[in-house]
Write a structure and sequence with these properties.
31% of the residues are buried. With 230 residues, this protein is mostly helical.
């Protein structure tokens, strides 16, 4: 009777081996197809170049299906939209691409909601409706919640908050001050981004932004009106 156990185990072990092999292939193929994009591009030329890898990134995400990191990479191949003029009209082709960018980013966040860069990416995309613009504050807050200490994201969050209605919110002001401290204490090379955010801010947001900078660093607040950071 005992001699039959190995015989009975063979089909189960064979099946298990097949499953493990297929799982390994399923994990390997998306990584082979996925472009080596180092997160969300913060340089315009890099963002433009990322578009060339869109097909591979999308194929990897579709095969990986439940991997939020792959959907984020697919979304980031549309990063050129982060430099779009929010007041300009988009062509039909651009609107179709923008819809795909949003869909990919939303898929990424549905699977991996702790991706602070993906939340910021959605906040930076051109708003195609008043409702989309009203969501900017929520998207930025989620970026802050999921990536509270992120010097690379800080300049972009400051810029987007300064060009939205979100800056009038007290909670958003607290988040903005945290990014200001992050830059001033940990990434002084990014101080010019504070000045740029202030100068590009909506007119009604400039006094608010300046007061937040003054709360964190009065000397830096003075630099907002000069050509060079302190």
């Amino acid at each position: 009777m005992l001699s039959t156990y190995p015989t009975r185990l063979r089909p189960a072990l064979f099946t298990l081996g097949i499953v493990l092999g297929l799982s390994g292939i399923w994990m390997l193929i998306p990584d082979l197809l996925s472009p080596k994009i180092a997160g969300l591009p913060f340089d315009r030329s890099v963002a433009e170049a990322a578009a060339a890898h869109r097909a591979g990134a999308t194929a990897a995400a579709e095969i990986g299906v439940v991997r939020g990191d792959l959907w984020a990479k697919a979304a980031f191949t549309y990063a050129r939209f982060m430099w779009s003029d929010h007041s300009a009209s988009l062509s039909r082709a651009d609107l179709e691409q923008l819809a795909k960018a949003k869909a990919n980013a939303e898929s990424a966040l549905a699977l991996a909601p702790i991706n602070g860069a993906a939340w910021l990416f959605l906040a930076k995309l051109p708003a195609t409706s008043p409702d989309a613009e009203n969501r900017v504050g929520m998207l930025l807050e989620m970026s802050y919640f999921t990536a509270p200490s992120a010097p690379a994201l800080a300049p972009w969050r400051l810029e987007r908050a300064a060009t939205s209605n979100a800056l009038s919110d007290k909670d958003m002001q607290t988040f903005v001050k945290s990014d200001l401290r992050e830059i001033l204490n940990s990434a002084p090379e990014l101080q010019q981004a504070i000045i740029v955010a202030y100068r590009n801010a909506w007119p009604q947001n400039q006094p608010i932004f300046e007061s937040l900078v003054a709360d964190v660093d009065p000397a830096m607040a003075q630099s907002l009106h000069s050509d060079q950071p302190k």
